[in-house]
Amino acid sequence: MDGKRGPKTRAAIVTVKKGAKGNLTWILQAALYTEGYSPESLDSIFGKGTETALANQKAGDISVDRKAGKATFTELVAG
Fold it and tell me: Least crowded by CB within 10 Å, which of 1, 26, 31, 35?
């Protein structure tokens, strides 16, 4: 790891969806919050609040599927 966002980082991104728990979910919630989309809580659990916040994916011309994959993480974190 070189501490830079590049092709290897983007290739390692996985899809996070409802029911997921852990650090990636917390990062997703924090990124949504900092972009102005409230996931309701930063609890590391992908629930209804996080799913609803992801409905705003359309704002970044991302397909609204209420999941967070490569396009969503790139828009929110690596944008």
Answer: 1
